[in-house]
Amino acid sequence: MSEINQVVRELADKLKPEIKIDEKSGISKVSSEVFEKNLPEGVTAEQCKQVWGAIQTYKDASALATGEVGVEFMSKNKEVPSVTAEFGALGHNHIDHTVLREHTLRNPKTQETTTVPGYIMTDVSISAVKRNAEYARVRQAIEEQAKKLLG
Fold it and tell me: Which of 8, 90, 94, 126 has the fewest CB atoms nearer than 10 Å to its CB?
């Protein structure tokens, strides 16, 4: 196996103490302050907020456009259950929207269901090509650790 990039290894070592896993749910929520205090030199929290704000606005606008075009398309094509649009966003990153003709939601408290027409789902995918090889090494390292510790 190739070595994990030293910058990634050092940052992971800083992040590990921040991960406090709830014993019942198995979930850990790490504060955004941890992200901010671990930004690379020369990158400010304000710059990141501007970039995330631009991504949020683009996500919202592309969802609205996809929803409007998708609902109109499905109104003319009754057999189509959903419409999906993938918007490229720098490199291999993308924002995907799927508009379902209808979707049933369940209230977890009451178990009551509601059918919603034109339900839209969105996924923001961050997948820079430069990091794909590094992420593959990360996945391989975790798989090897799991084989040792989880059987």
Answer: 90
